[in-house]
Amino acid sequence: VYNAAPAWGVTVGDALGVPDPVLTQHQHQHQGQTFAFLGIRVSSPLSLVVNGRRPPASALAPPCLALSNPSAPL
């Protein structure tokens, strides 16, 4: 689950409701092999319903800002 906090997750056997899913077909080629799979995306792990309940706010990973400036002197 993208953007989920490391300490939160679902386990085998959980009932999972996915409102407004976006289904995407992925197809990648690498070293002569083709890999194809479907992906389901939702806007946030907080929009899921797990075992009849919404996840707590702590299920959302905190934002992380990464900056890079290749032209900056070392």
Automatic annotation (TrEMBL):
On the tree of life, the source organism's domain of life is Eukaryota
Q: Which Pfam families match?
A: TTC5_OB
| Designated name of the protein | TTC5 protein
Source organism per UniProt: Lanius ludovicianus
| Residues annotated as domain Tetratricopeptide repeat protein 5 OB fold | 1-61
